[in-house]
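Bench notes, bay 3.
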Amino acid sequence: MPRGRSRKTAAPEAAGSVVYWDASAVLSVLIQDAHSQRAIRAARRSGVHLLSTLGYAEVMAVIARLERDRELPTALAESARDLVRVGPWRRLALQPDWKCIDELARQWPLRGADLWHLATASTLRRELPELQLITFDSRLAAASQDLGLAFGD
């Protein structure tokens, strides 16, 4: 098969799925909870998986806290850190549009980090209309649903 043809076949799959992950969703991949099955299915999905610097920091802070509190053995904490570093997530160094933050803050009663994630996903959506946000935070999920950003299985 010519190179061009195989690229055409593969491109729609990759281009069709762009998922922005918040910390709650990443943590559900790493640590067994009520959302783990859904998060793992999402992580295995082909496409582009994005993790912001804020999401990365939040995940690493939770892993470190669980390790310090001896709720997660050091070997498992290291494995979790490694999975975040080499997992399906592409690291994203981007900040949301300031005007977008202002507008969304008026619309939704979100904590600062969740507002930041929503605004970042909304900002990215301008260039990536297929982008979806995966979260297991109920308020952030409601806001992303209203904005048409909610992740669908």
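Next record in the batch:
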Amino acid sequence: MSKPNTRILTDSAALIDLQWARERGVTVMQHRVIRNGATFLDGADPWPGLAVPAQGGAGAGGRVDAAPLEDYESAFQQLASSSNDIVAILSSAAMSPAVARARKAAAPLHGSRAITIVDTRHVGLGVEILVRAATELAEQGADAEAIALRVRGLRQRVYAAFASEDLMALSASGILRPAQGHLGRLLNVVPIITIEDGRLAATEKVRSIERALERLCDFGAEFETLEEAVVLHAAREPDARSRSLARQLQAIPGGADVRLRQAGYYLSEALGPSGIGLMIYSSRVLTD
């Protein structure tokens, strides 16, 4: 397949299949986990799981980071050698430094190339859908301006809800304040997490993981149509909970086939190993 003139760049928190990206000429900047002296690449290496120090705190000794600035600089230079139009469609700037690094790396090329950087204010499916739409438009000959206009409109149609029992991971990632995490462990509560203003935020709390899964299913049932739905699991392989949630969602009238996906480095680290979530693309507003 020949590469379109307008080139697309994204990051691995979009959960883009790397083989698909290579075939379509999409450049994927890989997030990484740096832990205990080792570096793991998102999409190439399985998520290594949270490190647990002697004190029992989750997430210590490592961090998730976007690709380094020099990788973005190299990628833009390479893309600019074959195209005048480049569109970078990246995970939320409030969650990842990918947008900031892309802007800095692209700055020397402005004026000689049309480089458009889109902060999707999403992660996961929200970015994946925009990248696929942008790639289709690029293959049809659309320029960077037209592609950016389209994807900025589509980003309003993606919704997400997650749940996790790993309150220490949620505290470490800033979704909960430390005091909230401590109190939540005492009360055995499970937060329901959504994406608000480009950030992961705990918007509701329930008293068990079973109730949390019911809330996720209720969330999916609120939509008139589900063009796409993905159940994300932080565990390396889908467990009984994620498979059950997918089956329940597939039974909803107007629902699409539900995919099961590993959540990728960013969401897995933020939610912890027990994290589970639902991401939906719907062209219809929520029902009353």
